[in-house]
Structure formats: structure tokens, C-alpha cells
Write a structure and sequence with these properties.
heterodimer; A: alpha+beta; FAD/NAD(P)-binding domain; eight-stranded mixed beta sheet; five-stranded antiparallel beta sheet; 23 strands; B: alpha/beta; 3 domains; seven-stranded mixed beta sheet; 28 strands
Chain lengths: ~500, ~425
């Protein structure tokens, strides 16, 4: 079978938030950029499976890469969200000392944060804590006003779509299977990929390869002959709560961290769209794609939820999910190592990102700037004069607009008047926009991440048949075209009965 | 609001055009209200009955076994004969008491937004299915896990075959009906699992949908894990102990590509809550009086949005009463209902929660567990100043949580009581 060849200047491996931020950053320049992602959409891994918190940056050692890219990324986020049409809520965070033993931790975090350049850190007494979040208890708290929430999958998708709009090539459903280093200086990498859909190979020839493969970054390293790294997957499970509880949290509340904990502990996090999530747990596992939820952790999360939010009812739990941290330390060591962001001297042109776990989401735009500078050492980067940083999209869903604006929009386009997803009040036009996404992603989860349909309290019971009808009647989909997430997850088995013709139906 | 929002007025507005809404609208019209408006989110009237193509509807109301669409058709005819106004393909977005009295509905359709001022509103939105997340089944999240009603819609209305090797969790009626439907459509239905020690479906459905097709029902058994990263590959199931938690040593693996969930229905009361209607934590529906008026004056509720019914016939009966009372309210009669009705021993809930004593009424109730040869007793609760008094005693050969029980009371028998209590004896 002939192998398709694609020539590019920079090839990015991995369409998580970091890879997509890099693609978008490089799309500012006159350089050919391609991104390959093994899943059928961007952000299907860890980037969509986290708390959606923009960390302020006081948890990381001064001088570390994590401190640097987190604080910088956090500062970039307002402009980025404005340009891409995304919600960001600067709700701040309280890191609470429950007892005397936690007080030195708070003081250390405050000093560390100040050294890292985190704005506005303050240690506050219980009365002030109560003003920020009713009912919160503790001796004192570190308040970080720059902590914020965003939608992690919306950010990842918007970065990729804006990169594509500015000329970057985003190739979904292509898994990298082999990397050949340049045979001689000045020659290209040859990166072989295989299509998830039809098994066809495509080779990318690139001067620079960026490894942003997240949980698989060590495997990609090995393909390039780098054996220094090993990823230890560490799973975090979550519950999603009904929007009924929207407004119960006005700020983020975390307990003071314990030494060597693999994460920042279980907490309640409001999402920008009005749900609350409980989690994450932390459990080292073998599988890098084992997103299962487990009975014991689920029970622990439910208990934690009831403790933290006494008004919680069983019916408020609407969904579970799990994400996996790409840790560089095995369970017996625990804690975190610093991010690896390197321009490999031993493999010239190989820009390597390893162990980008928390705070990777916050750091993504700052990591993209660093990677840009590394790329510039190999390829001259000249700014394009036609780069458009804006997505032109509204951060709001149709249902969030005032009634008179909605009425005018329906008069222009009746599809806005037809509600398809009852729980989230998502309109037919929003479903159509999601299906017609510029990346060409066509799974049900792709529609969900773009339009919120199936994300509400009925979890698709109402809208799945309606979405199916739209895709069949207006886009000509056959039952076999409906995939939940991957080619291995078909939704339907076919038709119940065939149309055999005849005159009387 | 701008001119772009159309304004309508109605004496009685009915939200939902399923069996409850249709019967309520017809009854309101029969009671003399000339200005009834029904709002339905689907393209056609009939609600969930349209996907219920099996028969067995209407035995009480019409004395014959009809299919769901046929049963709906009878009421749609009555509705049309009376020239009652309806807005199809229109979904209600919000409901609130209007500042100048009455109620305001905001609804959306392809024709635009419409604001409706109504003297009285009848809530008839029905219920929705409890999804996987609400019962917290551990494991992977593959494709192939559907709620039974969504599956019924896809198979019966959209000509979509959802899978070939099926397990069903929950023995509610929709799950039982779908066991038969999937079998008839060529799928192999492996088993039905029920966490309770008894089925929550009607006995006739156990016989006609499972036994007749040799589909095994495993009681006190639940799904403990879902397997499959892509499409569903199988489920782990285990027997449960008295506390309903799985017994690990009984766990076994059942291969299947489809899991249907029939694990309960939740009255769809988002609009009711938005409007400030008090909700009963047991029924998850509104607290109502014997005219089916909720805690918000002028807002009435009936059908599955009020409490989940076993038979559509009782939905129609209840909705017809609610419709007539709503019409009377809209015409200016304000009911008083001061006698609280409470569930006693063995009874899960009673409805209405308040009665007046001024008129005869029917108490609907469900028992908490299966019983044989017991009585349903309606009595006054008794206190230091008032002796306990039996209002009515009804002998029952068989009592089952799956079946709704209706007890008719004569006003003369309980007028002046300080309260009523219903229990199993």
C-alpha cells in the first residue's frame, strides 16, 4: 500500500491542551505546522479530564519550570479567553489550615508564591474566609485571588480550532508508530502514523518534532531513541453534580497540602457552566487509558461530597469520570517532579515535553511560548501579518443570552428556537455548529464538548434520539457512522428493519 | 421585552401534551373554560405514548387493550373536537408568578419566543429516566449503555437497532417491555437484573415480556461493574445482601454489547421548582391539595410529573380532575384544604398531601413492600384531645409497591378531621 507523505516544518505529537497551545502559538508565524492526535478529537485524554482550575502558582518551588510556566500561563489566560471566546471566572482560592500543624505549610506556600511572583497572596483570618465562602472552617487560610476556573475541553478545542483557522494542519485519529531521526544534519525527521479509521499509513517529514504526547510522552521518547523517562499513570476520579447546586460555592476551597501527596486532595470545584465536581482521588494504576471509576473511590467521593455539602442528595450525582496524571515518580516516591521542557541536544530538532501533569492546563500557553523559542533555534520564525488571534465566537451558550437577544436571533435563524437538549437548553443550531466543527471531529463526545448536549441531568436520555435524527435527516448519517468516542465505540448496530420497497407503507 | 417576543393570553395553560396534559385540557374545556392553551415540546401530541407501540393501555378507561398511540389518539380526538388551542414543537423555558397576578410562561419554538399570561397553569410535563450516574455503577464508560426509554424511542420511532446481546438492569415496566421488544427485533436478551427482592414492574409484564420469551429475571442482583473501553463488552453482576450492597463471592461476568437501564423515573419538575412549587421528597413531585393545586396559587399538577403512575388510565383520571379544578380556579373559585394527609406504617407516600373535607376525594398511595391479606386503613392520627377514628378500611388480597392504590373517600366521612393517616394493617 502506498504511504502518503506530508511535508511540514514542525510536527506536534499529541492534541492535548499543551499540543494545541503550541500549534496555535506557532500558527502566528510563517512556518508549516502539523499536529497529529491518535484520538478522533483533541482533548480526549487528560486535558478534558481534570478540575478545570487555573492555579495561581504558589505550590511550586521557586526557580522551577512549573513555577515559571504556571504563573506566566495564569497571567496570559484572561487575554487568551477573551480572544478565543471562552469563559474564565477568577473566583480565587482558599487554602485552609485546619490545625496548628498546617500553619507552617501556609506560611511556606505564601513565601514560595511571593517568590514566584503570584499576585495578591494573603493569609486571612476565619472572619475574612467566611466572607469569601460561607460555612468554611479553619484556623486561617491562604487566599490566592488569581486562582480561576475555565472549561478545560473548551480551551483545548478553541486553541486547536484557532490554530487550524490560522493555517495549522490538525490530523485526528492518527497514531504515531515510528520516528526516524534525521539521517544527516539539515534533513528531516520521518514520523510514521497509522489511521485509527482505515489503518492507512501517512509519513510526516518535519524539521522539528514536538513531543507533547502526555501520558505517552515516554513512549514517543523511546521511538526517538530517548530512554531517560518513564511515566507512571495516576488516576483521579470525579463525580459531576446537578446544576441545582449552582451558586453553593463562591470560591475554591482546598485543604493545606500534605507532604508527598500525589495530588492536591479531594475538593469541590465549581465549573464555569454551573455544575460542581467532586474529586480527584489519586491512585497509581497500570493502564494509561484505564478511565474506569471504582466502587471504593466512588463511595469515598460521595461521602466527601456529603461532608462538604450537606444539602447534597443522591439524585444530585449525575455522572462520573476519571482522568490520569502523567507522573514521573513511582508510588513509593510520590510527590511531583518538575516539568521536562527541553530542546534535546542529542536529538537535534526534537523538542521534548515530559511529565506535564498539574498545572499543565494553566501552563499550556506559557509552555507554548517556551517551545516557540526552542523551535526558533532551528527554524527562523517570521511573524505573519494575517494571524487572527480571535475565534469570533461568543463565550455564552444561546440559553445564557437575554430573551430579547434570543428572540432576534430566532427570527434570523429558526434553528435557535428549537431546543434539542432539554436539560441544558441547547438549540438545534448549536448542535449543527458543533457537528460542522472546523477540525472535522465527528463523535458524540465531540458534540458534547462543543455544545454541552448530553451533559445535563438526564445524560442524553432526551436528546440522543433527537441528535440522531438531525444527523440522519440533515447530514445523511447511517447507523454505523455514530461513534461515542472512538472507532471501537459504535453507538448503533444498524437498522431495525430495512426498507424493502413496496407501495403500502 | 421587545416586540420580537410574541404575547399570548390563556385562562388555563397546560404544559405538556402527553396523556396528562391532553386529559387535563379536555376536562378544563368541559368544565366551561373556553380559553385553554396546551404547549407541547414535540412535533405531535401524545407524549411518551407515541413510542409505546405495545398494547395494554386503556383497559380501565375504554374497556379494551389499546396501543400507546391508539390510547393517545382517543384523547387527541377529544382534544381536537373541542377546538382547543395547542402550540406544538414549543418548549417551555421558564414559569413564574407574574407581577400583576397570574402566571407567566416563556416558551421557545422555531417561530420565536412566546410569552404566555395565564390565570391558571397545569403542570403535565411527565417524568424522565434515572441515568447511570444517578445510580453510580462503577467501571468503564463505553457505548452501548442506554436508558430503556431512550432505547425504546430509537428502536420504535427511529428504526435504529441499538445492539444485539442485551442485559437489562432494573425490572421497571419499561425495562420489561424493552426485553420483549429487543427480542422481537432479533436481539438476544440475556437477563434482567433487579436489585430489590421483588420486581418493580407489573405482574402482567413479567408474564408477557419475560416468561413468555424465556428471559430470566434475577432478583436481589445488581450490576457491579461495566466493562469495555470502546463498545460495551460485558457486565459484572452480583447478588446483594439485605443492605443492598453486593456480595463479592457471588460476582459473575455476563458478556453483552448492550445494557439497558430501567432504574426509576424522576418527575420532571425543573419548571415547578423555578416557579417556587413545594416538592415532596418522596414522590419528587409537587405537594398538592385535593384540587391538585400546588403550593403556588393557580399552579396545578397531574400525571407523572406529580407522582409516577403504574397505569396511564389513572393518569387520565387524575388529570381530568386537575383540569376541572384548574378551570374552576381560573373562573374565580379559591379552594381551601386544611386537612393534612400523611403516610403511616407500610405506606411510602399518599397523595394529595392536603384535603378540604368539602368534597369527596381519592387518595393515591404506594406501599413500601409486598404484602398479602392486609388492609389499607385511613384514620385520623389521634391526639390527647381527639380519639383516633377509622375513616375507611379496605381489605386487600395482594399489595405490591409496583401498583398504585387508590382509595375513594366520602367527604361526610372525614369532614372536620384534624388530619388523616393511611397505613397498612
Amino acid at each position: 500500500m502506498p504511504v502518503n507523505d506530508t511535508y511540514t516544518d514542525v510536527l506536534i505529537i499529541g492534541g492535548g491542551v499543551v499540543g494545541c497551545a503550541i500549534a496555535r502559538e506557532l500558527s502566528r508565524y510563517r512556518v508549516r505546522v502539523a499536529l497529529v492526535e491518535k484520538e478522533l478529537d483533541v482533548g480526549f485524554g487528560t486535558s478534558s479530564r481534570n478540575s478545570g482550575v487555573m492555579h495561581a502558582g504558589f505550590n511550586y518551588k521557586p526557580g522551577s519550570l512549573r513555577a515559571k510556566v504556571d504563573v506566566r500561563g495564569n497571567a496570559l489566560m484572561d487575554d487568551l479567553c477573551r480572544d478565543l471566546g471562552l469563559k474564565i471566572k477568577r473566583i480565587g482560592k482558599l487554602t485552609v489550615a485546619l490545625d496548628e500543624a498546617d500553619v507552617p505549610t501556609l506560611n511556606r506556600l505564601k513565601e514560595q508564591g511571593d517568590a514566584n511572583g503570584v499576585p495578591g497572596l494573603e493569609i486571612i483570618p476565619p472572619q475574612t474566609m467566611q466572607k469569601l465562602q460561607k460555612g468554611v472552617e479553619g484556623l486561617m487560610a491562604l487566599h490566592s485571588p488569581s486562582s480561576a476556573i475555565i472549561s478545560p475541553y473548551a480551551l483545548t478545542i478553541a486553541l486547536a480550532e484557532n490554530a487550524a483557522a490560522n493555517g495549522a494542519t490538525i490530523r485526528l485519529g492518527r497514531e504515531v508508530t515510528e520516528i526516524r531521526r534525521p539521517a544527516a544534519p539539515g534533513e528531516s525527521f520521518e514520523v510514521t502514523t497509522v489511521s485509527a479509521e482505515d489503518g492507512r499509513k501517512e509519513t510526516f517529514r518535519a524539521k522539528v518534532v514536538v513531543n507533547s504526547a502526555g501520558l505517552f510522552s515516554d513512549a514517543v521518547c523511546r521511538m526517538a531513541g530517548i530512554t531517560d523517562y518513564r511515566i507512571y499513570p495516576c488516576r483521579g476520579e470525579y463525580y459531576v453534580l446537578d446544576k441545582r447546586l449552582d451558586g453553593s460555592l463562591s470560591t475554591l476551597v482546598y485543604q493545606a497540602p500534605k507532604p508527598n501527596a500525589p495530588g492536591l486532595g479531594i475538593h469541590l470545584t465549581p465549573t464555569v457552566d454551573g455544575n460542581i465536581i467532586i474529586g480527584p482521588s489519586a491512585e497509581y494504576i497500570d493502564g494509561r487509558e484505564d478511565h474506569a471509576c471504582t466502587a471504593d473511590v466512588m463511595a469515598a467521593l460521595r461521602k466527601e461530597g456529603h461532608d462538604l455539602l450537606p444539602s447534597l442528595r443522591m439524585s444530585d450525582f449525575i455522572r462520573n469520570f476519571a482522568g490520569i496524571r502523567a507522573k514521573q515518580t513511582p508510588p513509593e516516591v510520590g510527590g511531583n517532579l518538575d516539568f521536562v521542557i527541553e530542546d534535546r541536544k542529542d536529538v537535534p530538532g526534537f523538542v521534548n515535553l515530559v511529565g506535564i501533569e498539574s498545572p499543565g492546563l494553566t501552563s499550556a500557553p506559557a509552555i507554548a511560548e517556551m517551545v516557540r523559542d526552542m523551535v526558533a533555534a532551528h527554524i527562523p520564525l517570521a511573524e505573519r501579518d494575517d494571524f487572527n488571534p480571535r475565534s469570533g465566537r461568543s463565550p455564552f451558550f444561546f440559553s445564557e443570552l437575554p430573551p430579547d437577544v434570543r428572540a432576534d436571533m430566532i427570527a434570523e435563524n429558526p434553528n435557535y428556537g428549537e431546543i434539542i437538549c432539554r436539560c441544558e437548553q441547547i438549540t438545534k443550531q448549536e448542535i449543527i455548529d458543533a457537528i460542522k466543527n472546523p477540525l472535522g471531529a465527528k463523535t458524540l463526545i465531540s458534540i458534547k464538548y462543543r455544545a454541552r448536549a448530553t451533559m445535563g441531568r438526564c445524560q442524553g436520555g432526551f436528546c440522543l434520539p433527537r441528535i440522531t435524527r438531525i444527523l440522519r435527516d440533515e447530514f445523511g448519517w447511517k447507523p454505523e457512522n455514530f461513534l461515542l468516542r472512538s472507532v471501537r465505540s459504535p453507538l448503533y448496530a444498524g437498522h431495525v428493519r430495512e426498507d424493502k420497497g413496496g407501495d403500502v407503507r | 421585552m421587545t416586540l420580537a417576543i410574541r404575547r399570548l393570553k390563556a385562562c388555563v395553560a397546560v404544559i405538556g401534551g402527553g396523556p396528562a396534559g391532553l386529559a387535563a385540557a379536555v376536562a378544563a374545556r368541559n368544565a366551561g373554560c373556553g380559553d385553554v392553551l396546551l404547549i407541547e415540546r414535540d412535533r405531535i401530541l401524545g407524549g411518551i405514548l407515541n413510542q409505546c407501540i405495545h398494547d395494554g393501555f386503556g383497559l380501565h378507561t375504554f374497556g379494551e387493550a389499546l396501543s400507546g398511540p391508539e390510547y393517545a389518539g382517543r384523547y387527541i380526538s377529544m382534544f381536537r373536537e373541542r377546538n382547543i388551542r395547542s402550540l406544538e414543537d414549543t418548549i417551555v423555558l421558564s414559569l413564574a408568578p407574574a407581577s400583576e397576578g397570574g402566571l407567566e410562561i416563556l416558551a421557545s419554538s422555531r417561530a420565536g419566543l412566546v410569552a404566555i399570561d395565564a390565570n391558571a397553569v397545569i403542570l403535565a410535563m411527565g417524568c424522565r429516566e434515572r441515568p447511570r450516574g444517578a445510580i453510580s455503577i462503577p467501571g468503564d464508560r463505553p457505548s452501548g449503555v442506554y436508558t430503556a426509554g431512550a432505547a425504546q424511542n430509537l428502536v420504535n420511532l427511529e428504526n435504529i437497532q441499538i445492539g444485539k446481546r442485551v442485559c437489562i438492569l432494573g425490572s421497571g415496566d419499561i425495562g420489561l417491555i424493552m426485553a420483549r421488544r429487543m427480542t422481537l427485533e432479533g436481539a438476544s436478551v440475556e437477563s434482567v437484573f433487579e436489585i430489590l427482592p421483588y420486581s418493580s414492574g407489573l405482574p402482567r409484564n413479567i408474564q408477557q415480556c419475560l416468561n413468555d420469551y424465556n428471559i430470566p429475571l434475577f432478583l436481589s442482583t445488581t450490576v457491579t461493574k461495566i466493562h469495555g473501553r470502546g463498545r460495551l463488552e460485558g457486565v459484572s453482576v452480583a447478588q446483594v445482601g439485605a443492605d443492598r450492597s453486593p456480595v463479592p463471592e457471588t460476582e459473575r461476568y455476563v458478556p453483552c454489547d448492550t445494557l439497558l437501564l430501567s432504574v426509576g423515573l424522576i418527575p420532571e419538575n425543573e419548571l415547578s421548582r423555578m416557579c417556587g412549587v413545594e416538592i415532596d421528597p418522596v414522590t419528587s413531585g409537587a405537594v398538592v391539595d385535593d384540587t391538585f393545586m400546588t403550593s403556588v396559587p393557580g399552579v396545578f399538577a397531574c400525571g407523572n410529573v406529580l407522582h409516577v403512575h403504574d397505569l396511564v388510565d389513572w393518569v387520565s383520571v387524575e388529570a381530568a380532575q386537575a383540569g376541572a379544578f384548574a378551570a374552576a380556579y381560573a373562573a374565580g373559585s379559591a379552594p381551601e384544604a386544611g386537612i393534612p394527609v400523611k403516610p403511616g406504617d407500610g405506606v411510602r407516600y399518599t397523595l394529595p398531601q392536603r384535603v378540604s373535607g368539602a368534597r369527596d376525594c381519592t387518595i393515591s398511595l404506594r406501599v413500601g413492600a409486598p404484602w398479602r391479606d392486609r388492609s389499607i386503613v385511613v384514620r385520623t392520627p389521634g391526639s390527647a384531645s381527639e380519639e383516633r377514628r377509622i375513616i375507611k378500611r379496605t381489605k386487600m388480597v395482594r399489595l405490591h409497591p409496583a401498583e398504585m392504590i387508590r382509595v375513594d373517600l366520602k367527604a361526610a366521612d372525614f369532614a372536620g378531621a384534624s388530619g388523616l393517616e393511611v397505613c397498612v394493617e
